[in-house]
Design a protein that fits this description.
Layout: E1 4-10, E2 16-21, H1 24-33, E3 48-55, H2 58-69, H3 73-80, H4 84-91
Antiparallel strand pairs: 1-2, 1-3
Helix pairs in contact: 3-4
Length: 107
Amino acid sequence: MKTYFVYILRCTDDSFYIGITSNFDQRWIQHQQGHFKDCYTYSRRPLKIECFLQFTDVIQAILFEKKLKGWTRKKKIALINNDFNRIQMLSECRNFTHFKYKPDCDS
């Protein structure tokens, strides 16, 4: 069974790079050595591995990578810190019209 990795790297400019690979060790070496000059991380080395997650289903890995790229920085940091309660809190709708925040009309 093949394994896929979704990973977060912290760049020297404190930005995050999110990627997916089936061979994390090889991809990490490529990032560190600047193997691809047009890669986001090329001019932002040295890099630090912040997080990587394993998947056995490539579709699930791709979907999670895309979702993760859309997350706020705060949610990414919560994931890096394994703070799943904070991820949940940051994921909740804070819109005034959301049912949890509507005043009770019966009072």
